[in-house]
Amino acid sequence: MKSYLSPLTTLQGFGRYPQQQGYIYTPLSTRECQDHLPNLTMPCITQGMGRSYGDSALAEHVINTQQLDALLAFNPATGQLRCNAGVTLAELLSVFVPKGWFLPITPGTQFVTVGGAIASDVHGKNHHHDGCFSECVASLEVLLADGDTLTCSRSQHAELFHSTCGGMGLTGIILTATLHLKPIQSTAIMQTTLKARHLTEALDLFASQDQATYSVAWIDCLAQGKSLGRSLLMLGEHESGGTLHTVKSSNVSVPFDMPHLLLNRYSIRAFNTLYYARIRGQSVQQRVHYQPFFYPLDRIQHWNRLYGRNGFVQYQLVLPQDAGKEGLHTILRHIAASGRGSFLAVLKALGAENNNLLSFPLKGYTLALDFKLTPDLLPFLDELDARVLDFHGRIYLAKDARMKASVFKRSYPRWEMFQAIRAQYGSLGRFASLQSRRLGLD
Amino acid sequence: MQKLLIIGATSAIAKATARRFASQGAHIYLLARDAARLADLAADLTVRGAASAHVATLDANAIAEYPSVLNTAIQTLGGIDIVLIAHGTLSNQNACEQDINLTLQEFTTNALSVIALLTHLANYCEQQQHGTLAVISSVAGDRGRQSNYIYGTAKGAVSIFLQGLRNRLHKHGVHVLTIKPGFVNTPMTAAFKKGILWAEPDTIAAGIVMAIEKQRDVVYLPFWWRYILLIIRAIPERLFKRLSL
């Protein structure tokens, strides 16, 4: 059986900036992947669903894992699942939710692969209690550049495990993963929405609502003055009673690129005002299905087209707890004053940092924003980077499309250890992305 | 529980269809060339709820092996409720035009092997007086076009063979289903530029499962290909021969 190599194609991440000409190789089995890799004469990078926003899965030679999508073994007594890395979270949920199991950690879209979730060490609305995706990963099989496959975990080749989780595909190719699922009694979530009139109130709410299993805030990044940082804080708890029904969600699609002028400061300001006013009281409780709670944007296919043909950059930063309040005020003021807004701005309190060398989260606050790509955006983001560094924060690699190497190296101090481990496993020069080259991880 | 035999089981459409039957708790027997991929697929179907998932390797061109392989499959399953024949290769038209052996090889893989398999399986179903024979043909078999008429000829032969088989087996309670997918986004078509006419394998699989349940005779998947082909077939040959399709 032969594998498939695409013609030379224009490749882009979900933010559609930047672009790269490249070939996509799609192995049909892990065996083919093992045979292919040692014979490859150029560096490659692994890609799953292509949902990282920037250039972390772009290269001249991309290995796509979507056909490596088998569920290999499941133990219904313990919830332990072994599967290929190309399985999507959507597929896992569609198979296991009816059996009463859920992902212990899930990002804001289910259209990512297990391998991608591990390589970006993604986090979700329960990070403050449960940590990153790697927390539900017991072990991995990683294909190294020489064609050998190693099993790694917290106790076996631990340094490979901790550099592969969050390692952006730069150590090797994740072939299979063993995960733990968590039992649920119902597909319903009890959602509580709390209104915060400004940033200080929002941060106080995160502190006072710390016991909530899930928490995230939508933040109006165009509000200024007394309303700077006004937010809607959404909390969620799994319901204990009810059913395990899955919904046939009614999807809508953005059929083509919207004119890039559609999203401007006026339209976004109008949207934000309406969105904030939607919640009338101080606190509103609703019983909702898990899909709209965790994956509100998954219902809008190709939502990235809203930003027009030129694409957008998603910018996600984290600031440590003690710098948080002052830092966020400074950064939000800077963004609000610039008039650049995103109607998908998200604020969340994160839990402690883990042992993975390039994992993003720190104990503190994270802010995620979309910025439409305009000629003056990149210098503006460099200014934001400088402020993030001032407050000892950092930028999320899964979203990054433009950070400078110096910024990366200052904010991810374990990068040298990461490179040393890559050298030890023969990964240097064999796995590389547009991002890794830009960040000086050659 | 339904007993399902799938030939060409690792193809994208077959895999998606098998997964749908697995979640209904079917007994499934898989035939394909690649043993490693078969083993992974069997494990996958078991996790998804298949009552059993057995595998054996088979090269569609090894026609002499069919009787013993099929008999083993039928014995293991203890009878057959549904057969899905899904193997095939997308012929390289230009290469075939320059190479007689390649042309004949493509015709063997895409038509003769299917006819040989169905000859055996049709007799079995006729004897047991029930069963569904579901076969993946193609919209390409509805009219010859310069861009892929080797593939189209083979699929057209399969479609006509199935018409005759349906006519013969109807009175024996055997359901014969001709499946005509349009463009499907599979590894087989990885080298093609994709447009709005392209469908995902799982969309085709959902259509196959429904067509089997509803005992349909011929299905175009997605359904609107019926209308596209209606137009394509209606173009007079005098005009059609001048088109670059």
Provide a brief overview of the structure.
Chain A is of the alpha+beta class and 442 residues long. Chain A has 13 helices and 22 strands. An eight-stranded antiparallel sheet of chain A has the order 17-13-15-14-20-21-19-22.
Explained architecture:
- The complex is a heterodimer of chains A (442) and B (245).
- By secondary structure, chain A is of the alpha+beta class.
- Helix content of chain A is 26%, strand content 26%.
- Chain A has a domain of 218 residues: Alpha-Beta Plaits (2-Layer Sandwich), CATH 3.30.70.
- Chain A has an eight-stranded antiparallel sheet with strand order 17-13-15-14-20-21-19-22.
- In chain A, strand 9 and strand 10 form a beta hairpin.
- The two termini of chain A are 34 Å apart.
- Chain B has a seven-stranded parallel sheet, with helices on both faces.
- At the A-B interface, strand 1 and strand 6 of A face helix 2 of B.
- Chain B: This is SDR family oxidoreductase.
- Chain B: Belongs to the short-chain dehydrogenases/reductases (SDR) family.
- Chain B: GO terms for molecular function: oxidoreductase activity.
- Chain B: Keywords: Oxidoreductase.
CATH architecture type of one domain in chain A: 2-Layer Sandwich
Mean pLDDT of chain B: 95
Approximately what portion of the residues of chain B adopt beta-strand conformation? 15-25%
The biggest beta sheet of chain B reads:
7 strands, parallel
Query: Percent of residues of chain B in helical segments?
Result: 40-55%
Name of the top-level CATH class of chain B: Alpha Beta
> How are helices and strands ordered from N to C of chain B?
EHEHEHEHHEHEHEHH
- Rg measurement of chain A, Å: 21 Å
Oligomer state equals heterodimer
GO molecular function, one term (chain B): oxidoreductase activity
Protein name (chain B): SDR family oxidoreductase
Keywords (chain B): Oxidoreductase
InterPro entries (chain B): NAD(P)-bd_dom_sf, Sc_DH/Rdtase_CS, SDR_fam
